[in-house]
Q: What sequence folds into this?
């Protein structure tokens, strides 16, 4: 068996976990969720949940990883001597499988757009990149299956070759570049005629817009962006050395996620208002609106292409981590099985992702519970499996683990945050998660 490897520096740890956590969640899912659930009210709930629920939970997952130091379908047993508790790890593993399944749909769209824009199949001059164009692209079953196949294949090759480290190095400049692009889009978007209405929509919380469903989605959104409950962050911290400060990392990840989400909101909503789109467009929102913004810029087509490549990069740093989680859980850190496991896991993901992709074309009419098959996969992961996983971990940490051990791994406590954090995790957060759960079923 391979010894668990370790990060050499805190920066490496922060970069890798941020690369994994910041992906489609903040840039693609946040604007679409906010648009469907009341704009400003959703942003407010998302911020409250992310800071008061997400952050302590992220610190909790980091602490567990640092204490347990092994793959997540084993870590609960190792920490508590209770084998059945590994079920929390398996729950996370299942979540990650399904998540990768619908994640790759969007990854596939990005790839299709990259090709279309690069080959000038889509050009800006005649305004073809409209909502209609989007429907034509996404409504094509074979094209979208091919797109997502390429996305999964890219992910698999990277994981098989074990070049994630190279990618992390690249993310040092790719991520800041993406960030600069986002800011440029925000500025352009805000300067459009009629932008103010959209700005108001996303920044002004109208309390009458808060629905119970919106509360649930906002909680799900903060879980999704912070990767909570999928055990992804536990895995990252299991490679952290004793001295690494998990609190700084957790705060940076939360701050970056909020920043990217807000920027995505500021980029999209003013443009929605300016171009007369509806905020409730759903998953296609970003893809329908952004080209219109780039269309207003000099060299828009070229900039759009660069933006799409950076966006793909952000999605890939998350998807390789999704696949990596499965690989480490099934190989149990035995590297000789890495390639076959990566292959089988990818094939399985490809199979389950097909109905998700077809939800936008031939299976559009198949609607139940939360909506299309795609919507249901997302709902199952973000609003059920992730909260369940996080709930399980709060119970383990609060009820079964030794407080002094936790304190040691929590690290230096200059600001005396350990006790408040501990009581939050022990008493408050499990109740919050359970309450929101119960409400959803009444
Ligand atoms: N947080 C990721 C995003 O915003 C999605 C995600 C959830 C994830 N759980 C994960 C990514 C586990 C990697 C590993 O896009």
A:
């Amino acid at each position: 068996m391979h010894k668990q490897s370790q990060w050499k520096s805190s920066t490496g740890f922060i970069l890798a976990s941020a690369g994994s956590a910041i992906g489609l969640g903040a840039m693609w899912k946040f604007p679409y969720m906010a648009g469907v659930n009341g704009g400003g009210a959703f942003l407010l709930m998302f911020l409250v949940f992310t800071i008061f629920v997400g952050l302590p939970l992220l610190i909790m997952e980091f602490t567990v990883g640092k204490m347990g130091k092994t793959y997540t379908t084993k870590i609960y047993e190792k920490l508590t001597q209770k084998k059945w508790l590994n079920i929390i790890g398996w729950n996370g593993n299942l979540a990650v499988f399904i998540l990768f399944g619908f994640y790759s749909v969007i990854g596939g769209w990005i790839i299709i757009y990259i090709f279309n824009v690069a080959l000038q199949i889509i050009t800006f001059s005649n305004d073809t990149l409209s909502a209609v164009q989007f429907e034509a692209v996404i409504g094509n079953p074979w094209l979208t299956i091919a797109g997502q196949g390429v996305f999964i294949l890219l992910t698999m090759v990277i994981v098989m070759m074990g070049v994630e480290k190279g990618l992390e190095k690249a993310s040092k400049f790719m991520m800041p570049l993406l960030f600069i692009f986002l800011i440029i889009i925000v500025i352009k978007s805000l300067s459009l005629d009629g932008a103010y209405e959209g700005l108001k929509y996303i920044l002004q919380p109208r309390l009458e817009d808060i629905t119970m469903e919106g509360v649930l989605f906002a909680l799900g959104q903060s879980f999704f962006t912070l990767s909570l409950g999928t055990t992804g962050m536990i895995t990252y911290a299991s490679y952290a050395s004793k001295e690494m400060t998990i609190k700084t990392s957790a705060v940076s990840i939360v701050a970056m996620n909020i920043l990217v989400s807000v920027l995505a909101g500021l980029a999209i909503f003013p443009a929605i208002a300016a171009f007369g789109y509806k905020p409730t467009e759903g998953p296609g929102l970003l893809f329908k609106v952004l080209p219109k913004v780039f269309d207003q810029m000099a060299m828009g087509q070229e900039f759009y292409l660069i933006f799409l490549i950076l966006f793909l990069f952000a999605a890939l740093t998350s998807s390789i981590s999704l696949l990596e989680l499965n690989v480490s859980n099934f190989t149990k850190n035995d590297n000789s099985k890495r390639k076959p496991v990566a292959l089988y896991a990818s094939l399985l993901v490809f199979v389950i992702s097909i109905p998700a992709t077809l939800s936008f074309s031939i299976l559009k009419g198949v609607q139940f519970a939360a909506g299309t098959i795609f919507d249901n996969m997302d709902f199952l992961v973000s609003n059920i499996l992730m909260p369940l996983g996080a709930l399980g971990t709060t119970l383990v940490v609060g009820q079964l683990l030794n407080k002094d051990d936790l304190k040691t791994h929590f690290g230096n406590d200059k600001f005396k945050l350990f006790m408040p954090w501990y009581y939050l995790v022990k008493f408050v957060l499990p109740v919050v998660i359970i309450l929101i759960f119960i409400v959803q079923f009444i």
The longest helix spans residues 87-118. The two ends are 48 Å apart (CA to CA). The CA atoms of residues 229 and 390 lie 4 Å apart. The domain at 10-414 is CATH 1.10.4160 (Hydantoin permease).
